[in-house]
Amino acid sequence: DINKIAKAVVLKDDKALVLLRSSSERFANQWDLPGGHLQEGEDIKEGLLREVYEETGLRLQEPVDNLYIKKNTFFFTAQMPEQDIQLSDEHTEYKFVSIDELPENISNRFKKAINAALQP
Question: Does 1 have pLDDT greater than 90?
Fold first, then answer.
């Protein structure tokens, strides 16, 4: 069973939340989507909610919708809750970006997910 990963495109005003990975992490100083590796036997959506909470302090509210699956990564969309973001040590900053504002140092698979989520 390959490691399953769940990532959220958290939307606010036609923009998506991206997080900058800290320099001590894998993929250091790359922009990232909230989410991460699921635990053994964990429900995909429950794992997503746990990972997003651990990384940002956000409690995503339903609807949390399936966007698509690519290999072992499950992408979801959710609306930004009315909360402040509290980053964990994994990330050093966050911002909301439109398709035109996507940073260069973000992987193509995350760009594709953000594009898919922000398309009308």
Answer: no
